[in-house]
């Protein structure tokens, strides 16, 4: 343990911040405490032990190696995690200590690249725990019930369904290309309406462009006809949606 912690944290051979507690001083010793009291704080750790997957979190030795390699932490910093523990270990520990009602967003603050798993000296399966906690947030488990809003769960189901059907996915691509026109500035979308404005308040979003499938299909006459059909369908769908919104607003004002 004395070798793993400093070498993974600061690259030193031995740390200068390790304290050894040997108990009260002996009768022949002049310095040291006269009594020794050991206080163990549970702080939700018993609840963490109940889950066979998330209990691996408690193996952490607080070296911080996962923070050094995490692309998310390197971009957002420690304050974005909202608690004492930041980075990948904070994304899995805070939701378990504070509860998913308080820290439901943290398990999703990861690209699941696995760099933290590779660098962890005690081999905590961080990505596996992140997926477990995401499942807990959305669907609930034996530890905590689901806390994700119904609209969030419904939209996730719709997106999953759309991405599993090729023609529906391609239709969605064309709809996005058409709908982004009023907001597009060159190759970027700098200002989007809510709730996407939460992203564009800090950085622009890349504009939706051509896909590899679309490029490949456009190389043949049949593929180009298919593209035109999808594009026309997207324009028709967007026109109907705009007309419906305009009708709903007009009706609301008249009432």
Describe the structure in your own words:
By secondary structure, the chain is mostly helical. The chain folds into 2 domains: 4-139, Orthogonal Bundle (Fumarate Reductase Iron-sulfur Protein, Chain B, domain 2); 168-254, no CATH class. It has 13 helices and 2 strands; from the N terminus they run H-H-H-H-H-H-H-H-H-H-E-H-E-H-H. It has a two-stranded antiparallel ribbon. The longest helix has 34 residues, at 221-254. It is elongated and about 95 Å long. The relative contact order is 0.07. The model has no long low-confidence stretch (mean pLDDT 85).
Mean pLDDT: 85
Can you name the CATH architecture of the largest domain? Orthogonal Bundle
What top-tier CATH class of the largest domain fits best?
A: Mainly Alpha
Q: Class by helix and strand content?
A: mainly alpha
Low-confidence stretches: none
Largest sheet: 2 strands, antiparallel
Beta-strand content bin: under 5%
Query: Whole-number radius of gyration?
Result: 26 Å
Quaternary: single chain
Helicity level: 40-55%
Shape: elongated
Strand order of the largest sheet: 1-2
Alpha plus pi helix count: 13
CATH topology-level name of the largest domain: Fumarate Reductase Iron-sulfur Protein, Chain B, domain 2
Q: How many extended strands? A: 2
Count of domains = 2
Task: Give the SSE order as H and E letters.
Answer: HHHHHHHHHHEHEHH
Q: End-to-end span in angstroms?
A: 71 Å
